[in-house]
Amino acid sequence: MLFVPPEAAWGIFMNDTMRKVAIARKIARPNTKEFIEDIFEDFLEFHGDRFYADDGAVIGGIASFEGMPVTVVGIQKGHDLEENVKCNFGQPGPEGYRKALRFMKQAEKFKRPVITFINTAGAYPGIGAEERGQGEAIARNLKEMSNLKTPVISIFTGEGGSGGALALAVADTVWMLENGLFSVLSPEGFASILWRDPSRAEEAATLMKMTAKDLMKDRVVDRIFYEPKEGIENNLKFTTDQIKAALRETLPELRGLSIEGLLGRRYKRFRQYGEFVE
Fold first, then answer.
1. Handedness of CA 133, 135, 141, 143 (dihedral sign)
2. Residues 124, 91: contact at Cβ < 8 Å?
3. Can you list the alpha helix ranges (DSSP code H) found in 160-272?
4. How many angstroms separate the CA atoms of 27 and 80, rounded?
5. Chain segment 5-24, per-residue pLDDT in tens
6. How many CA atoms lie within 13 Å of 221's alpha carbon, on the beta-carbon side?
7. Could you give the CA distance from residue 136 to residue 139 in angstroms, rounded to a whole number?
8. For the chain, what percentages of helix, strand and coil (3-state, to nearest 5) are there?
């Protein structure tokens, strides 16, 4: 019997968009902690939201980027079942978003730029999360980030699912890895709602325009970072070197703006999406 490696099977049985979905979901794909360790120095992790608990799905703290103090926050996934249980498979509860906001407000107070890393299928949809105010926590992040008086850069490293991803992506500039995604929900969920047939997920993925190239065309994403042909899990430095170069270029530019200029620029960035509706 002929064995077909999973990567080869994607090329045979999936269209290009669904193949990117499969790559973004690979359990071996580098997680936020690995990106932080490869890009920054002296990372000091903080814990807890000061209201309820410490959500393992969100990690963050302070670090140094080539001598510049920064705050880094991201959604964490694991590489095996044990790790994924600890971080709830990368699906934050309200305490995770409140924890992230605590770090960002601290960054604002001490005038540190904020860099967020996003890789999540979405916010945790369980009853407990809803009882503790999941919707309110996400909405508050959107409100507070839109007016955060310090530069914000968001980087999509894998999946970007709905408001759970957007809650860390109200930024001055939004970047995405080549196989990153950002959409209102998963292709399977889209197909289930629209056609009541989750088996049409491949068709839905194409319609959703969720890939980096699609989002770059629609000005949702400002920059794309390429991934190595052998897989980013085998050569993370190939991509993080690009991210470092972009941070070197962009951070001084954003820090050079006045608060009024920074907030005005951010406002215009998000207001432009109304053009697609009118």
1. negative
2. yes
3. 162-166, 187-194, 201-207, 212-217, 236-255, 259-271
4. 7
5. 444 444 455 788 999 999 99
6. 25
7. 5
8. 50, 20, 30
Tens of pLDDT, residues 173-208: 999 999 999 999 899 999 999 999 989 999 999 999
d(C-alpha 98, C-alpha 23), whole Å: 30
What's the Cα-to-Cα distance from 25 to each of 13, 108, 148, 159, rounded to whole Å? 17, 33, 31, 7
Alpha carbon separation from 232 to 12, 40, 157 (Å, rounded): 21, 18, 10
Residue 195 in tokens: 């056609």
Residue 262: what residue type?
A: L
Angle, helices 16-24/187-194, rounded to nearest 10 degrees: 130
> How many residues in total does the chain contain?
278
Q: Are 129 and 168 in contact (CB under 8 A)?
A: no
Q: Are strands 68-75 and 58-65 parallel, antiparallel or unpaired?
A: antiparallel
Residue-wise DSSP of 56-98: TTEEEEEEEETTEEEEEEEE---SSHHHHHHTGGG---HHHHH
Q: Please state, in angstroms and rounded to a whole number, the distance separating the CA atoms of residues 182 and 194.
A: 19
